[in-house]
Amino acid sequence: MPLMTTKPMFDLAYDGGFAVGAFNVNNMEITQGIVTACAAEKAPLILQISKGARKYANMRFLKHIIDAAVEEYPDLPIVIHLDHGDTGDLVEACIKDGFTSVMIDGSPLPFEENVKLSAAAAKAGHQKGVVVEAELGVLGGIEEHVVGLGAEEYQKNVEKYLTDPRQAAEFWQRTGVDSLAIAIGTSHGAYKFKHEAKLAIGRIEQIMKTCPGLPLVMHGSSSVPQEYVDLVNQYGGNMPNARGVPEDQIHLAVTRYGVCKVNIDTDLRLALTAKIREVFATKPSEFDPRNYLGPGREAIVKTVKHKLQVLNCAGKAEAVIKQWKKLGEPLPAFYAESH
Ligand code: G3H
Ligand code: 13P
Ligand code: ZN
């Protein structure tokens, strides 16, 4: 039953020129779509749950869906991860719920407060065998609202909000976190670039130099496939100018610059929504949820399969399990007790 932390995955990914996909889950169909694709491609995966997902789906339901995935695919290395945890209490709750990895996101806070919050989370996680991701720097999209920035201000002064390489080294040393989410020009959601769609690759390279060996994480990394944007717009939706991160830039970041985890949510939402819209528009008398959620789930399978090629992660499952066994990593305490 390879439910594991990200350690065996990142050990291999850092030098191996690939990254593990971290996909957001909110319900059964999304989870099934992701896991089916990863099983077909023999790829390790991270299933991540936001605070909003916990509230929407009820943690107990989500946990059992993920347990079912672990049982259904016993050879697939799977991590359960908290996405954008904002308080120590939420981190503690997730550790108790059997998560193998948590993110504490103190990025909207002043540096010293972010250090304090992240160091405490790292300590709490490590005591229970859970790995901890933190974040430094400001992403555009949803996070610009957290810190009260307008999109205009962010776009104009983006350099200022990118992760500072020297600060990253100090942050890592003082917090002891296991991985770091960095701001390099990505943003959450479906509208990522007003002008040139470009990542600050030079900045990732500098961070890699100041923090050698630290697994880096890219949030806001959906590529917003035009195929699904077009379907949404064709069938009654309204998503003008939706734009994601070019896939060649993601591929470059994961193959050359220490990026070990890539977060994807928007592309899954888009695939599901596009297909549901298509069914509703082309078969107006359809009202069996299986007949619209099913095609949506299929579109997620297709999207994730493609993504695994971009991340160069297909076929890496077996090596990750070998590394997991080599490390002799125990199951997190709560999970071991309850299984
Ligand atoms: O980064 C945010 C993720 O896309 C999760 O979004 O908080 O709406 O679940 P959510
Ligand atoms: P996207 O909105 O680009 O899918 O990013 C998701 C994310 O970063 C979740 O933490
Ligand atoms: Zn994110």
Task: Give the helix/strand layout.
Blueprint: H1 7-16, E1 20-24, H2 28-40, E2 45-50, H3 51-57, H4 59-72, E3 78-85, H5 88-96, E4 101-104, H6 111-127, E5 131-136, H7 142-146, H8 151-156, H9 158-161, H10 165-175, E6 179-182, H11 201-210, E7 216-218, H12 226-234, H13 247-256, E8 259-264, H14 266-282, H15 290-310, H16 317-327, H17 333-338
Parallel strand pairs: 1-2, 1-8, 2-3, 3-4, 4-5, 5-6, 6-7, 7-8
Helix pairs in contact: 1-16, 2-4, 2-15, 3-4, 5-6, 10-11, 12-14, 14-15
Description of the molecule:
With 339 residues, this protein is of the alpha/beta class. The protein is 53% helix and 12% strand. It has an 8-stranded parallel beta barrel, surrounded by 8 helices. Strand 6 (179-182), helix 11 (201-210) and strand 7 form a beta-alpha-beta unit. Helix 3 crosses helix 4 (59-72). The longest helix has 21 residues, at 290-310. The protein starts with 6 loop residues before the first helix and ends with a helix. The mean pLDDT is 93. Glyceraldehyde-3-phosphate (G3H) binds next to helix 3 and strand 3.
